[in-house]
Amino acid sequence: MNVNIAELAVGQDIGSRSITVTRTDLVKYAGASSDFNPIHWNEAFATGVGLPGVIAHGMFTMGAAVQLVTDWAGDPAAVVDFQTRFTKPVPVADTTGTPEAGAVIEVSGAIGALDVDAGTARVDLTVLSSAQKVLVKAQAVVRVA
Amino acid sequence: MTINPDLQGRSYPAAEVYDVGREKIREFARAVKATHPAHFDVAAAEALGHSDLVAPPTFAIIVAQRADAQLIEDPDSGIDFSRVVHADQRFTHHRPIIAGDRLVAELHVDGVRAMGGGAMITTRSEIFALAPGDATDAAGVREPVATTTSSILVRGEGQ
C-alpha cells in the first residue's frame, strides 16, 4: 500500500490492533535487543525493586506499537521519526504453559498533522494496557508520497 | 550513591563497530511482532528499492543502549542500573538501517537534572555507518544514519 498525502486528513483513523504479550515474548525481546534487565524476566527481582511483578520492556511496547504504522505506510523505511514517553509499566502475568496472554496492548493510530512541503504525515498512537495509557506522546513521522 | 552532576556535556567517542546482520534483523523483527516482508525477505526489500533487509524503526536501540552502557558502567557516573527506569525515547532516521551496515555510535550526555533523591539523565547517540571496507572509523567517511535520544530516571533511595 502506498499512502498519498492528498488523500489524508488530520484526525483520520489509520486502524488499530491488539498485541498479546507473554513472558516468553519478553525473553525473546531481551535476547533480540540484548536488554537483560531482570525486571523483565525475574519475578522475585522485579518485586524486590518495588514493581508489581515482571514488566514488559518499554522498548518492547514501543517497538511493537509502531508496527501498525509500518504496515499502514507500506515500507518500514518510511518511518523517519518515532518518539514516546513511557508513563506506566505493562505488568505481564506468568501464563507459562497455558494459551493465555500475560498482558494485552491495544494500539490505535490517527493522523495528527500533515506537512505537505516535507511530504510527511505524523501519526499519533494511543497505546493502552488494562485501560491505562502506557505510552504518551507516541508519535511517528512517516514519509508519504 | 548520588549521580555525578559533571556528567552533563560529557561524550564518549564511537567504540566498537556493530555489524547489522540479516538474521539479527529477522530476530529483532520477530521479537517486536513485526511481519512486514521487508524485514525477512531480501527480494521484498529490493522491490521497495532497498539494497537488503530493512531494520524495524526501533532497531537502533541495540546500538544506542550499547553506547549508553559506557555511561551506566562508568564507575564515575554514580548510576545504579537496577534503579534505572526508561522515561522517554526518540529515533530520528537520516536513512534506514539496512543489513550489511557497519554502525558506530557517539554518545553525548545532554542533560542531568536532579529529581528528588534521584536524577533524570538525557543521552543522545549519533549513529553513523562506516564506508564499506573501512576497518575502523579512524579516518573513514561516516554517513549519518540515526540520532537517538533517551531519558532515564535513576530513582533515588526510597523512590
Would you kindly provide a brief summary of this structure?
By secondary structure, chain A is α+β, with helices and mostly antiparallel strands. Chain A has helices at 23-33, 43-48, 58-65, 67-73; strands at residues 13-21, 79-86, 103-115, 120-129, 132-143.
Please name the defining characteristics of this protein.
heterodimer, A: 145 residues, alpha+beta, five-stranded antiparallel β-sheet, 4 helices, 22% helix, B: 159 residues, six-stranded antiparallel β-sheet, 3 helices, elongated
Proportion of strand residues of chain A:
35-45%
Query: Main sheet of chain B?
Result: 6 strands, antiparallel
The greatest interface between two protein chains, and residues involved on each side, is: A-B, 35 and 38 residues
Form type of chain B: elongated
The residue-averaged pLDDT of chain A reads 96
Structural class category of chain B = alpha+beta
Question: Measured on Cα atoms, how large is the radius of gyration of chain A?
Answer: 17 Å
What structural category characterises the helix and strand content of chain A? alpha+beta
- How is the largest sheet of chain A built, in terms of strand order? 1-3-4-5-2
How many extended strands of chain B? 6
Mean pLDDT of chain B: 91
Distance between the termini of chain B: 13 Å
Q: Helical region count of chain B?
A: 3
Record field, number of beta strands of chain A: 5
Individual helix count of chain A: 4
Characterize the quaternary organization of these chains. heterodimer
Helix content of chain A: 10-25%
Shape of chain A: elongated
